[in-house]
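Holo model, iron/sulfur cluster. Inputs:
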Amino acid sequence: MDAIIIENIPFDIQAKQLYPILKIESNRKYAERLDILLASARNIACPRVAYKLAAVEYDNDGTVLIDGVCLMSRVMQVNFEDCRRAFPFIATCGMELEKWSRTLTDTLDIFWADTINMMALGTALEAFKRHLTDTFETRMTSTMNPGSLEDWPLSEQHKIFSILNAAGETIGVQLTESAMMVPLKSVSGIEFESGEKFHSCQLCPRDKCPSRRAPYDEQLYAVKYNA
Ligand code: SF4
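Output:
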């Protein structure tokens, strides 16, 4: 199956949603400044997603093959045990916002723009998950991202791009040799149907991570993945 592009995703976040995140609720001067910055971001924002419906197969040793491409992750082998299909994807805030944020010179504006661009990426990911439910009637899904755990290194991001052929370029995402993406607020991964919700954070001991979505479970790897 060819890659599918999701675009024209509305980015209608309101400044009031950002006040508590940026801790400027009680500062009227800052709030007005943020309103102006956000309005210019909303005018140009084009978050996008490229993905495809891919076959999940297994090598003789249990290694996972996504559309024939071999992915090296023990956690994936276990998580994908009952999967016959999966959805490799690249999501991005879009080159428009990346270029806009590069024109900013004030440190505070740059910091706020970083958060705005992150929210645009979040909007793209939400649209992607809604699209999968509507199009493929997916049951509960979870996500694996290359580089989020030692088990699946960032270098495997090249394989996601290769599975999606040139779709990364179609949505304006470049992958450098060191496997970094431009725009910076972009993410790649594989969405898969799972009986129970999986978060990489469950296997990640990193302390005080502001993006943590699930508590670290010290026993989980040994019990579930190291059999
Ligand atoms: S705890 Fe933070 S660094 Fe670790 S997987 Fe979760 S989001 Fe990533």
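Residues 107-136 form the longest helix (30 residues). Residues 4-199 form a domain with the NADH Oxidase fold (CATH 3.40.109.40).
Archived with the compound record.
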